[in-house]
Automatic annotation (TrEMBL):
GO terms for molecular function: tRNA N(6)-L-threonylcarbamoyladenine synthase activity. Residues 32-150 form the Gcp-like domain. This is tRNA threonylcarbamoyladenosine biosynthesis protein TsaB. It comes from Pseudoalteromonas shioyasakiensis. InterPro entries: ATPase_NBD, Gcp-like_dom, T6A_TsaB. Belongs to the KAE1 / TsaD family. TsaB subfamily. Keywords: Acyltransferase, Transferase. CDD domains: ASKHA_NBD_TsaB. Signal peptide: none annotated. The gene is tsaB.
Length: 230
């Protein structure tokens, strides 16, 4: 049961998602709209606030998708969250896009062991392994990484696989008896940031707008903008 009033947003991938949890009610938006995030995100935030009949200053905390994902999308997520936090003097919590998908697998399907992967382009994937703790929060095992699919070795544990990384490179998991591919969870959704943001806020694990940081995983120096991609 989430007691805090939270706005969370993510624009790190092709998906744009927002969720507002206010006085026990949840208002949610999710759509795939590549290269339209910056035009749509602020009007959608206004729309959610209007539906909830609240103002930014009525909230306790703002969550944002900190990546990994497209560099442009990650920057949009961080910049919008910073702007809102400055305006309303609210603390921020950054949440991994890979963790969001793992959290969704747990909340929807009770998957307590999850391999998350996002197609990172350039023949690579963003990958991380998550396990649920006793409170149902998905926690990172080892570290998030960007890796060529042929170099990835998955742990020999029974797990669900979520994200576009497996859709792009299905051979990585289709032959593994211990891995079940969930094709319904391909991109991160801010709705599944709520548990992480609420937990972090309750423990005082927040940052100021000035200290909000993206998590690219891939070194920005090595990145090349691809035609038609953010």
């Amino acid at each position: 049961m989430i007691k805090h009033n939270i706005l969370a947003l993510d624009a790190s991938t092709e998906a744009l998602s927002l969720v507002l949890h206010y006085q026990g009610q949840t208002f949610h938006h999710f759509e795939e709209c590549p290269q339209q995030h910056s035009q749509k995100i602020l009007p959608l935030i206004d729309e959610l606030l209007a539906k909830a009949q609240c103002k930014l200053t009525d909230l306790d905390v703002i969550g944002f998708g900190q990546g990994p994902g497209s560099f442009t999308g990650v920057r949009i997520s961080v910049a919008i969250a910073q702007g809102l936090a400055y305006a309303a003097r609210l603390p921020l919590v950054g949440v991994s896009t890979l963790q969001m998908m793992a959290q969704q697998a747990f909340e929807q399907d009770q998957a307590s062991d999850v391999f998350s992967a996002i197609d990172a382009r350039m023949g690579e994937i963003y990958y991380a392994h998550y396990k649920a703790d006793d409170n149902g929060l998905m926690l990172l095992v080892d570290e998030e990484q960007v890796i060529k699919p042929e170099l990835l070795t998955l742990p020999e544990t029974t797990a669900a696989a979520v994200g576009t990384g497996w859709q792009t490179y299905p051979a990585l998991v289709t032959d593994l008896a211990n891995v079940s591919l969930n094709e319904n969870i391909l991109l991160p959704d801010a709705k599944y940031m709520l548990a992480s943001v609420a937990t972090a806020y309750a423990h005082g694990d927040t940052v100021t707008a000035a200290n909000a940081q993206p998590k690219y995983v891939r070194d920005t120096v090595t990145w090349k903008k691809l035609p038609g991609r953010e």
